[in-house]
Amino acid sequence: MKKIILSILCGALALQASAQTWQDALFFSENNYGGTARSVGLGNAMTALGGDPGSLTFNPAGSAVSSYSQVVFTSGLSISSAKTQGISEAAGKLPVGLGDKVSTGYTRFKVPNGGIILYFPSGNRHGYQGSSMGIMFNSTADYTSRLNAAGVNQDNSFSGSLASSARGFDPKVLGQEDWFYDGNDPARLPAYADMAGYRGGMFDAVLDDDGKFTGDYAAVTDALGSTKPGLAAPIYQKYGQQTKGFKSDILFNYAMNWDDKFYVGANIGITVLSYGINEYWYEEPDDPAEFQKHDIKYEDGTIAHFQSLEMKHSLGLKGTGAYFKLGALWRPAGGLRLGAAIQTPTLINLKETYAYSAETQLSGRYLSPTKTPEFEWVYALWSPFRVNAGIAYTIGQVAALSFDYELSHYGTASFRSRSDDAYSVGSFGGVNRDIHDALGAGQIFRAGVEVKPVPFLAFRAGYNYITSPQRAYFKGDKAVTFSFQERASRAQHQVSLGAGLSLGAFYADLAARLRLVPTDYLIPYNYMTYQTTDKEFYRKVVDLDVVTPQIKTDWTYVNVLLTLGLRF
User: Fold this and answer.
1) Is 149 within 8 Å of 239 (Cβ atoms)?
2) Which DSSP helix (H) or strand (E) runs through 199?
3) CA-CA distance, 422 to 434, in Å (whole number)?
4) Phi and psi angles of residue 285, each rounded to the nearest 5 degrees, phi first
5) Torsion sign, CA atoms 257, 259, 263, 266
6) Which of 112, 145, 151, 243 sits most deeply, having the most CB atoms within 10 A of its CB?
7) Tell me: the pLDDT tens digits for 286-306?
């Protein structure tokens, strides 16, 4: 697979200052539903079943199916495992860097569900039987992950990539006190990572014999006087990232029951999003003695030698939004149940903060660590509509079989600029076009089965097939459509198992779910080159002639949930 495809399909967008790309629009719009242990154990195929508090996310009418009130609380563990190794584009060649096999695990405690549903019977023998009201929160995404990669690189360096990105910018701009360029064109602002790297001593300006800036920069890892990627000696690199957070819907639900056959309900949903990512890039000599042969000379006569460097990047995202969902459930005959629901798009108001820090260790000279201010940006994400449909069949209280279908068109998502009193496309015209070109319909097929060998004990199993909404990748400015086979290969699978115990008013459910995702590819840094022949220093593109490390990651995600509930 060529590097251009790997660059687009990477799981994280390393060195990106903020989170507004078509990948981000997809990442924060997609749902990976949690809920109660019963709903997860059934693969969340709940649109036509109802009755369980976890079903409210899929069909608001489901709360009126059970003619009793209930309070519920679900806790659990979210577990991720990553196996990484650097790869090479060319068959039979060793990876450029980060080639060690590294396994990383990460576990966090989660609360994916909780709330209360109150049922009010009408006392009528026919017609309107009663209504339900509830407040419930259900998880719709879990951002728990951690990976690490390491290995020797003999060709290029992270610090060299910063030098290539900064090429052409005046050193006074990179080193100014307020971290902002005060020129006439704000587009000429250098990347904050470049500014942090320059101030942290990861690269420096190349001067001519008269002491004038040549327009080039050299990294502390490069051979003296080198203006092209070229290490002084092999280096040992490490890269890592950790993400955490969640997306949950707080549901204000109302539903009605007619003749225990037809149910209709509505949700006012409040989406709450919290996401954070921390990344680091670390480099040191593979053999310190080799770097002792390469002097770093300063104007004051000091001679130093490279020992290590590390850059860190943190990004946090908080957001809230609102939507409306309408659903219906019908029991036409016997154990047959049919359900459907539609959800409006969600406008999520987002507040983003991000910062960088950089530190370089040299023998023979002290360099002060540097840290950027915590930058802040507010904007909004328009998340697309959703449609659910389901069919289920129950055999009394003995067994249930359910199938669900969900559709959402992610190509309609968009970012919006946000001010105190208005929203507009603003500066997001380009990325919104990318969203439209790269993304299409995403579908989820869910199936679940429940069997009760005895009235108080239930066993459950579920399966999800989740198609990829990505229909194209970008080669330069052109969107290239995936083949059917390429798109199918990016589907996700989820399998779940569960059990439940019901003792009168009290019930307890347990579930475990395994999520299988396609192999992920990540490029932790790229070298940059001028976009135009006249070398406009503030317009650069990825230099495809420089092959940087590429990380292959195989992910495993596991969720374990325990639900405790009380009927009354």
Assistant:
1) yes
2) helix 192-199
3) 23
4) -65, 140
5) negative
6) 112
7) 999 999 998 888 878 889 999
